[in-house]
Specification:
Layout lengths: L5 H38 L5 H53 L1
């Protein structure tokens, strides 16, 4: 059904034009915001997934090596402590034997 009222037709055309203009402005604002975001992200020091995974693997290997070295140090310290304790006990025992024999 068509309206015979020219004022109503003009109002509908104006609202349609306004809606089109607003949609265009929205698309333009969105593309501008996307571009600004891309510039901001590009300026940041983000790493890619492959670089992250490589560094993660290196960190895991370093942790494993660190644990192995800790165990090795503990074993060497125990060995040195055992040698030092045995040497001290032998010297004391030797002194006691010498004193007892005299």
């Amino acid at each position: 059904m068509q309206s015979e009222n020219k004022m109503f037709d003009d109002l509908v055309k104006m609202v349609n034009g306004f809606a089109g203009t607003m949609a265009g402005m929205g698309r333009e604002a969105e593309s501008g915001a996307r571009e600004k975001f891309r510039e901001w992200v590009g300026g940041q020091d983000f790493v890619g997934r492959d670089e992250f995974e490589a560094v993660k693997a290196m960190a895991a290997a370093a942790r494993d090596e660190n644990e192995a070295l800790k165990a090795r140090i503990a074993a060497l310290e125990a060995k040195v402590s055992g040698v030092a304790t045995g040497a001290t006990g032998a010297k004391r025992g030797g002194v006691k034997k010498a004193a007892a024999g005299a």
